[in-house]
Automatic annotation (TrEMBL), chain A:
Subcellular location: Cell membrane
Pfam families: BPD_transp_1 (PF00528)
PROSITE patterns: ABC_TM1 (PS50928)
Annotated InterPro entries: MetI-like, MetI-like_sf
Keyword Metal-binding appears in the UniProt entry: no
Residues of the ABC transmembrane type-1 domain: 148-328, 468-647
Coiled coil: none
GO MF annotation terms: amine transmembrane transporter activity; carnitine transmembrane transporter activity
Protein name as annotated: Binding-protein-dependent transport systems inner membrane component
Keywords: Cell membrane, Membrane, Transmembrane, Transmembrane helix, Transport
Domain of life of the native organism: Bacteria
Gene Ontology cellular-component terms listed: ATP-binding cassette (ABC) transporter complex
TrEMBL record, chain B:
Superkingdom per UniProt: Bacteria
Gene Ontology CC entries for this record: plasma membrane
Family listed: Belongs to the ABC transporter superfamily.
GO biological process: amino acid transport; glycine betaine transport; response to osmotic stress
Enzyme Commission number(s) from the entry: 7.6.2.9
Name of the featured protein: Quaternary amine transport ATP-binding protein
Location of this chain's protein in the cell: Cell inner membrane
Location of the ABC transporter domain: 38-280
Membrane topology: Peripheral membrane protein
CDD domains in UniProt: ABC_Pro_Gly_Betaine (cd03294)
Length: 659, 359
């Protein structure tokens, strides 16, 4: 306590900071005005660009040519379980060749739907069963079965892999604090801010265009939350339980596996839920490198601008996402509640009635599908297609509201997007490095200042400054609008239980949707371009702003509110002078999350024709140019890290002030 | 050592009981280079020295001896270091300096394997917040320490069933911790710590998380168990009334130091410092003080009755006051060694004697 107090006393007080900032801004303005005299300070000189991209490309080429035996064997080994899962769920098992070929059928769709219902019932009662079973039935009836099962098959192999890896890395981090500090934490931060696209490029290069490389990319992308959950869960085990295990005479291994990990199970299950949702998100995106499945359907439809088909596949993704999320959340919730006493029965089927029934139904329907084709594939006669409907809706909207939408779009571009863009792209890179470094120094100290300045400078010296600023402009604007919409909604939700009850399911659903899904409806109305990207990003990134604001206001201790009321505060005064200041750190955390989510989404919006770093990655992906893609990916990650570090430091400062 | 041999210890006079566990100048300092700091000073340091070195003294220069079969209570307010001290005794916390002797052998020098063996078979511990494993039911929780030792299922479940009977939890074997009340959870904690038949039993504020009525019930339960099992008990509490009710001897801790060790009576009659006196002020003295402390030499007057030297005043105060005559204090052979006058008892009850104690 005394240490922080003396440190802050040594720093210049607030008024001096005001003066410093004014001077700094003037200095940057001067640089901007003098750009004819010193253009190198505004636009990074092209001849001084450090060819990091070429170095990385060379390195990757070297790896590829020298380690192809390794990548090939990895592909072969991982291909076995993956093929099995894909055959089981989506394709059929083919045994033998040519004329003697004999096909074992995949699991019948009827059986899978029934099993989904039973799983839901076992985890959360018949209501959840109906929801989960219904989602699967929806997928079947809307003709997306095979694609959805390809996606599910990939997830079902990637997720256990993520869980096991995450668990072991988490344990390692927990055992060795130095490893956590020096290796794991920075790696996790980087992994979670590198855009999803950037993962695909090295995978594509090393493992080719195949489901295996999609699976590896998915596994890498979806592991961090499991690592974090393991670290958090182990750290949260009450110290008494730790002491107990010592006193019971546990060896280190017994302690970990029989006491600590089981005690941490609720937290671990939350991690599993996040892994599943991230894996789904990534599998959709990995369709670009051969994952196939629903993501590929969306991608094909979008490329051909078949909005109806894209919408249909998108809705199937939504159904799959909701089913997986609710199911895994219910299981996590059950674990958090702890177990309750059930009369033990010696019979397996009595102890696990749902599991037994599910296996029996799967076996029976799959056997039946040998003779009854309706069980093998969803009969055409009972499937619906809504594609023409969506198409008609879009045409109707375009015909009737074209002028309005167009006017809105043009006005937005002319009055908001273009000026901000011009401002950002003209911003001197040296000024940005300087100002961000200054902010880092004020908020935390020299270390943060150096980190922020170095990361910002990286974007410039790799020759990506203009694209970086294009990203910053679109991301910043979207995040700003998200906050403008989200924070008031969060405030309203915090003040009215009824409003909260309507908002919560909506944002819960928005949160589980893979980012791809947000693009589809917007692209239908606004076609490609920055406006589409911005609107999709706002819809995607608004969730944390709402959630954290609501939570921040609601978590203000009731005793403080009572104290305010007793002191004679009006509701207005209570809100503005007690609740809001106390909730501010939490709201800032929400803003931080919003920025990071907006960044992730903006990159994916490269698909709808933005001109930023995302496009750079996207182009690199299509050209399999690993150096270019990775450098652009790093630049994106660095934008995220800079924003995150500055906001975290600011939040920490605000928290410290509140005590 | 089995429970049967322990029970013999009761017949032996208290002071002759062997020393089970002893702390010799035990220190626990937090901060960098704490070990060097205290070694260089030969195990001596004043609070000012410690503060000057930027260290925090959680346990300072603790010397105490716990005898076999006694209930030894370590009492102190929160932050006094009592929890750290008990964790030093079981090496859950590694002391910075000093010796912890278990039956004369220095615990700090034994190997990790020996320590595990010791904890598995000879030490038991009960925790303030129960520390039950949430994923195991009552039976499995209690059998857990046995399963860690590698006992097979029938053996360990038989033993678990025995202790379940002992603590009165029959019928709840298959319940999970969250389905039990706080008192029941702590019964599970007690049963679990007894399952391995430990010789020394650490109870770290075992009843502090319970409601007052349940707490009293559990204290009675503990006394009942102790009359059957005769464990060596190290009991931590911040509640002086609880300490008085249960203790054979009490060590009072403040700021990491033990400031007085004695029977409840000794603490009440002869508090070492004002701090101890402050604790003992509101104690019902008649229940703590025995005839021995109140007696004076016989002056030849008539006696209205006889009492044993160890009899608490409360046990005969009504009869002595109504008799209106002094009672003779007689030792085991029936020989009078002094007398207690009604006036002395009345003074005690009225709190007049208090001045002497405070002096």
């Amino acid at each position: 306590m005394t240490v922080t107090a003396s440190a802050s006393a040594a720093r210049p007080p607030v008024q001096r900071w005001l003066a410093i900032w004014a001077l700094a801004l003037i200095a940057v303005l001067v640089v901007f005005l003098l750009q004819d005299r010193m253009p190198w300070a505004v636009n990074y000189p092209t001849e001084a660009v450090v060819p990091v991209a070429d170095w990385i490309s060379a390195l990757m080429r070297w790896v590829k040519s020298n380690f192809s035996w390794l990548t090939r064997s990895i592909t072969a080994v991982l291909g076995v379980p993956l093929d099995f899962a894909l055959n089981l769920l989506a394709k059929n098992f083919k045994i033998g060749h040519g004329a003697e070929a004999f096909a074992l059928p995949r699991l019948s769709w009827v059986g899978v739907c029934a099993a989904a219902y039973l799983a839901g019932r076992a985890a959360g009662g018949w209501k959840l069963g109906v929801l989960v079973g219904g989602c699967f039935a929806y997928i079947a009836l809307f003709g997306q079965w095979t694609s959805a099962m390809l996606t599910l098959g990939l997830i079902s192999i990637a997720v256990p892999f993520c869980i096991v890896t995450g668990l072991f890395v988490g344990i390692w981090a927990w055992r060795k604090p130095w490893a956590e500090r020096l290796i794991i934490s920075p790696a996790l931060d980087l992994m979670q801010t590198i855009p999803t696209f950037a993962y695909l490029i090295p995978m594509l290069l090393l493992f080719g265009n195949s489901p295996v490389s999609a699976m590896i990319a998915t596994a890498i992308f979806a592991t961090p939350p499991m690592v974090r959950a393991t670290m958090l869960g182990l750290a949260r085990v009450p110290s008494e339980i730790d002491d107990f295990s010592e006193m019971a005479g546990c060896t280190a291994r017994q302690k970990l596996w029989r006491v600590l990990l089981p005690s941490a199970r609720p937290t671990l299950m939350v991690g599993v839920n996040q892994v599943i949702m991230l894996a789904l998100n990534m599998v959709i995106i990995a369709s670009m490198i051969g994952a196939g499945g629903l993501g590929y359907d969306v991608l094909l439809a979008l490329r051909a601008l078949k909005v109806g088909e894209a919408m249909e596949a998108g809705l199937a993704i939504v159904a799959l996402a909701i089913a997986l999320d609710r199911l895994s959340q219910a299981i996590a919730h059950n674990h958090a509640q702890g177990q309750i006493y059930q009369a033990a029965s010696p019979d397996f089927w009595r102890r696990y009635p749902n599991l037994t029934l599910a296996v029996a139904i799967l076996a029976a329907t799959t056997l039946l599908s040998l003779s009854v084709p309706a069980f093998a594939a969803v009969p055409k006669a009972i499937t619906f297609t809504t594609a023409p409907l969506w198409k008609a809706a879009v045409s109707w909207v375009t015909i009737n509201f074209f002028d309005t939408i167009e006017a809105f779009r043009v006005a937005l571009i002319l009055n908001v997007l273009n000026p901000v863009r011009a401002f950002c792209e003209g911003f001197p890179w040296l000024g940005a490095v300087f100002l961000l470094g200054l902010a880092g120094y004020q908020l935390s100290g020299l270390r943060l200042a150096f980190l922020v300045a170095a990361l910002t400078a990286f974007c410039a010296i790799t020759g990506l400054w203009e694209k970086t600023m294009a990203t910053v402009y679109l991301c910043g604007l979207s995040a700003f609008i998200s906050c403008l919409i989200g924070i008031p909604i969060g405030l309203m939700a915090s003040r009215s239980d009824r409003f909260e009850k309507t908002v919560t399911p909506i944002i819960d659903t928005l949160q589980v949707l893979p980012s791809f899904c947000f693009i589809i409806p917007v692209v239908m109305l606004f076609r490609v371009g920055d406006v589409t990207a911005m609107i999709a990003t706002v819809a995607f990134a608004v969730v944390p702003a709402i959630r954290y604001t609501n939570h921040g206001i609601r978590q203000v201790p009731p005793a403080l509110i009572e104290a305010a009321k007793v002191s004679g505060c009006t509701p207005r005064q209570t809100f503005f002078r007690v609740q809001l200041p106390l909730a501010l750190p939490e709201i800032m955390l929400g803003v931080n999350q919003t920025i990071l989510m907006a960044l992730a989404m903006i990159i994916i919006c490269a698909m709808v024709g933005t001109r930023d770093l995302g496009q750079e990655v996207f182009i690199a992906l299509s050209k399999a140019d690993s150096g270019r893609g990775i450098v652009a990916g790093l630049a994106i990650a660095f934008i995220g890290i800079v924003a995150d570090r500055l906001f975290s430091a600011w939040t920490a400062k605000a928290r410290a002030r509140l005590g | 050592m089995t429970e049967a041999t322990e029970s013999q210890a009761v017949g032996v006079p208290k002071d002759a009981r062997p020393i089970k566990l002893a702390c010799r100048n035990v220190w626990k300092l937090f901060g960098s280079n704490a070990a060097d700091f205290i070694r260089q000073r030969d195990g001596k340091a004043s609070p000012a020295d410690i503060a000057a070195a930027g260290l925090v003294g959680a346990v300072r220069a603790v010397d105490l001896e716990i005898r076999q079969g006694e209930i030894f209570i370590i009492m102190g307010l929160s932050g006094s270091g009592k929890s750290t001290l008990v964790r030093c005794m079981s090496r859950l916390v590694e002391p910075t300096h000093g010796k912890v002797e278990f039956e004369g052998k220095d615990l700090l020098k034994i190997s990790d394997a020996a320590l595990i063996e010791l904890r598995r078979h000879r030490m038991g511990m009960v925790f303030q917040n129960f520390a039950l494993l949430p994923h195991l039911n009552v039976l499995d929780n209690i059998a857990f320490p046995l399963s860690i030792q590698g006992q097979d299922r029938p053996t360990r479940e038989k033993r678990a069933q025995e202790v379940i009977e002992l603590v009165g939890l029959r019928g709840r074997e298959h319940f999970y911790p969250r389905e039990l009340s706080g008192g029941q959870q702590q019964r599970v904690g007690i049963a679990r710590s007894l399952a391995t038949k430990p010789e020394i039993w650490f109870l770290d504020e075992p009843f502090s998380a319970l409601d007052p009525l349940i707490r009293r019930e559990m204290q009675d339960e503990l006394m009942r168990l102790q009359t059957m099992l005769h464990k060596t008990i190290v009991f931590i509490t911040h509640d002086f009334d609880e300490a008085i009710r249960l203790a054979d001897r009490i060590a009072i801790m403040k700021d990491g130091e033990v400031i007085q060790i004695g029977t409840p009576e000794e603490l009440v009659v002869n508090p070492a410092t004002d701090y101890v006196a402050e604790f003992t002020r509101d104690v019902d003295r008649a229940k703590v003080i025995s005839a021995r402390s109140l007696m004076r030499a016989c002056d030849g007057s008539d006696h209205g009755g006889t009492v044993a030297p160890d009899a608490k005043i409360a046990s005969f105060s009504a009869s002595i006051v109504s008799a209106g005559k002094p009672f003779a204090v007689v030792n085991g052979t029936g020989k009078p060694i002094g007398e207690v006058t009604p006036q002395a008892v009345i003074d005690l009850l009225a709190g007049i004697e208090h001045k002497r104690a405070g002096a």
